Amino acid sequence: MSSDTSAAASSAQQPARAVLVGVDLGPDASFDPTLDELALLAESAGDEVVARVIARRKAPDAALFVGSGKADEIKLLVDMHQAHGVIFDQALSPAQQRNLERHLGVPVADRTALILEIFAQRAQSHEGKLQVELARLQYLSTRLVRRWSHLERQRGGIGTRGGPGEAQIELDRRMIGERIKALKVRLDKVKRQRGTQRRARARSGTFRVSLVGYTNAGKSTLFNALVKARAYAANQLFATLDTTTRSMFLEQAGRAVSLSDTVGFIRDLPHKLVEAFEATLQEAADADLLLHVVDAASPVLQEQMEEVDRVLVEIGAADIPQVLVYNKVDALPESQRPRQAVDALERMPGVRTPRVFASALQGQGLDALRDLIAQAATGTEPADTQMTQDAGVADDEAPLPSPSGPAARDDDDSSPRSMQA
Ligand SMILES: Nc1nc2c(ncn2[C@@H]2O[C@H](COP(=O)(O)OP(=O)(O)OP(=O)(O)O)[C@@H](O)[C@H]2O)c(=O)[nH]1
Ligand SMILES: [Mg+2]
């Protein structure tokens, strides 16, 4: 970070130059060798990625996370690009972060800090802001209190006193502890209010549908297409933070259902963040039907789906019926595009999950999706004829998605064709 913090702070629009670091800790650890997701996170936070560094180790170094040779290499890149900071793809201990900052001479953030920063930038509603503040304070309370912004670009708040003394840190810690308590009380109240609203909706018999999925899968785009609304959709991670609910009339069912757009999930989502966002996530947990939106064109589709499933378990939503929406089929190479709109997967023994191939952007598969929602809302079973709808996305000769292809899962129990039998 340049020593001229006032200049950096006064031009909040100007991106901070960041060096990204990922450490490959062997086959068991979840590791993204491209660092693409971290780069997208950094860009979503307003940073400019100037270099990416990959290190390989059996275990993280206790002091620096990377070896000292690698740390020197990172320092060289920081100097060369005049970077403002370094962002690690993995969680750093407070001590590692401190040591690295001393070694590199610039602020060092980890993935969690980066995600928290994005959430802080995005929070719009009162509730969203409370949730973000709670998550940040919980993260900060375990570290030396030194900054708010992940790359120290903001001024004010607790963060920017240069090198606080131990007494100051103690004071900050105590204040933070009290603030956390106060926030939890206020969020509890929000939670109770939401609970009351939900019970009222449940009494009114409204069938509740919730969009869930990995961040950037296209939930908001699909939400907009389905309810003809204009929720904020963008090629950013965590574009949506607040839950939006709209009523959607289904001709097929002759009734309206409520549809909610929710915050996206991400790999290694800090547990504390999930906890802080409980009130928002509860909306998904109380739904009658989940539309699990996946980016069918993502090379890491499988991992993303598993991550979403993990969070659903964590918030107690694992047993809610799901429809898988394989979105962005328009972005698949011609040869991998599915030929029909709907099939079903046996994701758990004995449970067939309907799957819709869709393009929220181009409006494909939406009718099939509405049909499935209507069936769920009226408690009717999908008829075989409805399972063979033409997706209109590929000609008859196009091959079906292969189990190894991006639009299929390994546990795909049947080829989509068998549904037509
Ligand atoms: N090619 C293609 N792009 C899509 C489609 N649906 C959404 N996108 C793009 O994917 C990006 C993310 O879309 P969003 O709707 O914001 O995704 P989201 O899941 O709401 O993301 P978060 O709110 O950030 O979690 C945007 O750039 C969309 O234009 C689709 O069907 N095809
Ligand atoms: Mg969104």
Automatic annotation (TrEMBL):
<dbReference type="GO" id="GO:0003924">
    <property type="term" value="F:GTPase activity"/>
</dbReference>
<feature type="binding site">
    <location>
        <begin position="327"/>
        <end position="330"/>
    </location>
    <ligand>
        <name>GTP</name>
    </ligand>
</feature>
<keyword id="KW-0479">Metal-binding</keyword>
<dbReference type="InterPro" id="IPR032305">
    <property type="entry name" value="GTP-bd_M"/>
</dbReference>
<comment type="function">
    <text>GTPase that associates with the 50S ribosomal subunit and may have a role during protein synthesis or ribosome biogenesis.</text>
</comment>
<keyword id="KW-0342">GTP-binding</keyword>
<keyword id="KW-0547">Nucleotide-binding</keyword>
<feature type="binding site">
    <location>
        <position position="240"/>
    </location>
    <ligand>
        <name>Mg(2+)</name>
    </ligand>
</feature>
<protein>
    <recommendedName>
        <fullName>GTPase HflX</fullName>
    </recommendedName>
</protein>
<dbReference type="InterPro" id="IPR030394">
    <property type="entry name" value="G_HFLX_dom"/>
</dbReference>
<feature type="binding site">
    <location>
        <begin position="359"/>
        <end position="361"/>
    </location>
    <ligand>
        <name>GTP</name>
    </ligand>
</feature>
<comment type="subunit">
    <text>Monomer. Associates with the 50S ribosomal subunit.</text>
</comment>
<feature type="binding site">
    <location>
        <begin position="213"/>
        <end position="220"/>
    </location>
    <ligand>
        <name>GTP</name>
    </ligand>
</feature>
<feature type="binding site">
    <location>
        <begin position="238"/>
        <end position="242"/>
    </location>
    <ligand>
        <name>GTP</name>
    </ligand>
</feature>
<dbReference type="Pfam" id="PF01926">
    <property type="entry name" value="MMR_HSR1"/>
</dbReference>
<dbReference type="InterPro" id="IPR016496">
    <property type="entry name" value="GTPase_HflX"/>
</dbReference>
<feature type="domain" description="Hflx-type G">
    <location>
        <begin position="207"/>
        <end position="381"/>
    </location>
</feature>
<dbReference type="InterPro" id="IPR042108">
    <property type="entry name" value="GTPase_HflX_N_sf"/>
</dbReference>
<dbReference type="GO" id="GO:0043022">
    <property type="term" value="F:ribosome binding"/>
</dbReference>
<dbReference type="GO" id="GO:0046872">
    <property type="term" value="F:metal ion binding"/>
</dbReference>
<dbReference type="Pfam" id="PF16360">
    <property type="entry name" value="GTP-bdg_M"/>
</dbReference>
<feature type="binding site">
    <location>
        <position position="220"/>
    </location>
    <ligand>
        <name>Mg(2+)</name>
    </ligand>
</feature>
<feature type="region of interest" description="Disordered">
    <location>
        <begin position="378"/>
        <end position="421"/>
    </location>
</feature>
<dbReference type="GO" id="GO:0005737">
    <property type="term" value="C:cytoplasm"/>
</dbReference>
<dbReference type="InterPro" id="IPR006073">
    <property type="entry name" value="GTP-bd"/>
</dbReference>
<dbReference type="Pfam" id="PF13167">
    <property type="entry name" value="GTP-bdg_N"/>
</dbReference>
<dbReference type="InterPro" id="IPR025121">
    <property type="entry name" value="GTPase_HflX_N"/>
</dbReference>
<feature type="binding site">
    <location>
        <begin position="261"/>
        <end position="264"/>
    </location>
    <ligand>
        <name>GTP</name>
    </ligand>
</feature>
<keyword id="KW-0460">Magnesium</keyword>
<dbReference type="InterPro" id="IPR027417">
    <property type="entry name" value="P-loop_NTPase"/>
</dbReference>
<keyword id="KW-0963">Cytoplasm</keyword>
<dbReference type="GO" id="GO:0005525">
    <property type="term" value="F:GTP binding"/>
</dbReference>
<comment type="similarity">
    <text>Belongs to the TRAFAC class OBG-HflX-like GTPase superfamily. HflX GTPase family.</text>
</comment>
